[in-house]
Structure formats: C-alpha cells, structure tokens
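Entry 14. Ran structure prediction on the chain below.
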Amino acid sequence: MDNDERLSALIGDIYDAAIDPSLWPVALVGIREHLGGCAAAIYAKDAGNRTGNLYYDDGGLDPKFVQLYFDRYVKLDPATTRHYFAEIDEPTATDDIIPYEEFVQTRFYREWVLPQNLLDHLTTVIEKSVASVALFGVFLNRAQPPVDDEMRRRMRYLAPHVRRATTIGKLIDWNASESAALSDALDGIGAGTFLVDARSRIVHTNTAGYAMLETGRVVRATDGRLVGLNPEASRALHDVILASGRGDASVGTAGIAIPLQSTDGDNYVAHLLPLTSGARRRAGATYAAVAAVFVRKAVLETPSPPEIIARTYGLTPSELRVLLAVVEGGGVAKVAAALGVGETTVRFHLRRLFEKTDTHRQADLIKLVAGFANPFSG
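Output, structure tokens:
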C-alpha cells in the first residue's frame, strides 16, 4: 500500500469512528503512526475550573499517568490556559506555549512529563464553547524526532477530518454493521438528516428533516435535490456532496460546517459525512447514498470568562494562569507550588497583572475576576 492509499485508509478509519466510537482507538493508532508520535488522544479541558475529560485514546500512555493528569496535573499544565486562545485546527507544540527551557523547570514537567520519557505534545483545537475546548493531540517521546514543519503539515491536514468526525459523532448513535436499523437511528437524531446521492437527490430523511423541508425555512427539495435558500449555500452543498462520491480524502476541509440562514434570519449549519468507504459503505449502499447531511441550528460560541478577561486586559497566557491561581486562593508561595514555577516568576507576573489591570492587591484581582463571572452559574 503506497502513502496515498494509507492516508486514504486512515481518513476512512476516522470517519468510521464517527458512527462507531469503539473504532476511535484504531483511528488514533493510525494517526499517531502517520504523525510519528508515541500516543494520541481526543480530550477536553474546562475553562473555568481547569479540569479535563478524556474521550478517546489509543492506549499509548500509561493509564495511571493519564488518570493522574486529569485528577491533578491538568491544573499545572502550562498548555491548559493557552489552548483557549489557539485557532481551530492550527497545530500547537509546547514551544509555542512556553519557552522549552522554562517548561523543563515546571513541576508539571518534572512530575508528569519526565517520568514518562516524553518530549513534546502537538495539539489542535477541534471545538470551542463557553465552558471548554476539545483537543486532538499527539505525544512524542525522547526516542522520536521533535515537532517539525512536516509534522505540523500532516496534523493540519488531518485535524479537519477529526473535527468533522467528532462533530457528527455527537449527533448520531448507530451501529454501522446494522444498516437495517439505520432509518430508526436517523429518526432519533434531533438534527435534520438527509441521505443524498451524488446528484444531491434526497434518498432518505428523518423526521426532523421532513419538518425542515415542509416549512422550507432552512433547506428545500428542488426537483428532489437538497438545496439551500441561496445559490451560494446550494453550490457549497452540491460541491461537497459531489466530492463524497470520489472518496473520503476528496472531501477535504469542505463541508465541515456549511453556513445556512433561515428565512427569518436564524443561523444554521450543515455537516457532511461521506458514506462511500469503510464501515459506512453498507449504510450508504442500502439507500444508494454517497453522503449524510446533518442540518442543525448554529450554537453561538461566546468566549469563556478567562478568555474575555485576557483579551480585555491584554494578558499573556502565563499571566492568566497566575491570575486564575490567585483567585483559587493563597499567597505567592502557594501559587508557585500550584503552578510548579518559582516564586520569583509568580511575583514578576503579579507585578505585570497589577499594572495591566490597574490594581494593587491580590484581593483586587479576585474582585476583578468575580466581576466577569456569569451571574446565572452555580
């Protein structure tokens, strides 16, 4: 199998995992091998309390250390704060977050990274919300070459496929091997779902999809073809559906989130999943479909309070980490211990925080952060 065939098979594995989550470990093994890492995972971090949650991994890391990370070290990881500012699908390595010579001085490095003989972690943000970020990442150990431009290029190419698969995976829940039950599974989806052939003709739809077609507020059926309410949206839908018929890799980054607007001005988004390869082929063949199109109302992504605070006062990720640690309580020594950095570093960042926020005491910083809190939370 040549490189193009292996890459096509890997993308197929990623999309198969969208409809069968038990296949994610297989896909992540392929991803880590393609990128040259020792482990891969999809996980999330909470913006407010700096906790995290593992969704899928390939088993490349010691489970004991994985559990320790989410129990304790997610708060010490310098990347935890920085990830809220990263661009979607843009690869971020450790040195993009903190100078590596400073990173090796942190408690996180000494107690979690070094004992596993790890070297680096290359991540991309695949989803942002008010409360959290979802990440797709690959770890490298000391026996492997460091992150380079080629690895970033490969990560940048795969990230949109992972993002599409995880987005659609949250919408659906069916077993691809039981294609006879596909129609029942589709009816249980809240999003309008349309199975279409290579000419965009609708060959099956679920209950929510029928309701959308009946009102004609978001999408319509014109001569049996799925179309948007304006030529641009229709063209975008048709192009990505046509690409689906040529295979998973042909879809590329198109169709991850095609914007649609309803007649009354509400924003919707369409996500597309190819059905011509891998475990999805049987599901598609049952209906002579090349793709499944999921249409749902767009969710407004408001920046989380920490991100708003940082943007308001022009804080660096390191300054924001110190600010949030101060809010959790304790003086310089406790903050330094919590973050795994020296007290001199904490004092330096505190001086910068006082200057930027026009405050003079740690108590003032706590009041400042409280002013940004959501009054309806908790």
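The CA atoms of residues 109 and 115 lie 9 Å apart. Will compare against last week's run tomorrow.
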